[in-house]
Amino acid sequence: QVQLVESGGGLVQPGGSLRLSCAASRSIFSINSMGWYRQAPGKERELVARITNIGNTDYADSVKGRFTISRDIAKNTVYLQMNSLKPEDTAVYYCNAHRRTFADDYDYWGQGTQVIVSS
Fold it and tell me: Can you tell me the mean pLDDT for 74-82?
């Protein structure tokens, strides 16, 4: 089992920055990959960024160059640095952990943190 706790959401003006944190209950090195997803009202959930346990990253085209996913293994924490925020970035952001074993795949989700980009 993996417990995930997100923090860092809030209200920010367009062009501003925000950093989200996701603290895991176990070493993130033991988790195959972790990612940030978001869901805006009336829209489907989408992958924002993902990082593997060896540090490889992937980003949605809409956030490339603006968002950066990173990790602090000692703190069991993954971060999402969001810069040059736009109103369309407004959404609930969810942390995801994907753990792969020899037999099964497991997904774990945080409770979500609200990000509002508005003037």
Answer: 96
Contact 67, 49 (CB under 8 A): yes
Residue type, 114: Q
Cross-strand pairs, 99: 106
116 exposure class (CB count in 10 Å sphere: 0-12, 13-18, 19+) = middle
Contact 119, 89 (CB under 8 A): no
> Which of 56, 60, 117 is CA-nearest to residue 90?
117
Q: Are 79 and 95 in contact (CB under 8 A)?
A: no
- Interval 63-75: pLDDT, tens: 999 999 999 999 9
